[in-house]
Amino acid sequence: MKDIQLDIVKNIRPNLEFSGSITVNYAGNYDSVVLNTQILDSNELMLFTSLNGKKISSRSSRLFISRDSMQQNRAVFSAIITFEPQKRHDVKFRASIIEQHKEVESDVFFAELA
To answer: Which pLDDT tens digit goes with each residue over 67-110?
Structure first.
């Protein structure tokens, strides 16, 4: 199994909340996990709505998850994209393990927004 695994639904619909998870199997110590997102060919951002069951409201392209929030080395998040796309967009998700201010491992996942 990979050191970090990102799982999200493949098809994202506008104005419908979706969820995903990040699992860390990294053998070393790490400080945090960062989830970067990009709606390709767009300037729009997604709204993160929860992290491990706790409500948040951060319209951002980045979600910071401290190691203390990684229950059993796993984090579950939900988000929503609130704009109406005029065409199909790919959405790139990149989860990175951060150790002493450096990225040590990452995983990339692509979903489709239509």
So the answer is: 999 989 999 999 999 998 999 999 999 999 999 999 999 999 99
**What are the beta bridge partners of residue 63?**
35
Whether the per-residue pLDDT at 112 is higher than 90: the answer is yes
The residue behind tokens 């910071």 is 64
Enclosing H/E stretch for 5: strand 4-8
In degrees and rounded to multiples of 5, residue 52 shows phi and psi of 55, 40
Q: Which residue segments constitute the domains of the chain, with CATH numbers given?
A: 4-113 (2.60.40.10)
Q: How far apart are CA 90 and CA 54, in angstroms?
A: 27
| Residue ranges of E strands in 25-88 | 32-39, 46-51, 54-60, 62-66, 74-80
SS3 content of the chain, % helix, strand, coil (to 5): 5, 60, 35
Global pTM reads 0.91
Q: Check residue 97 and give its pLDDT.
A: 98
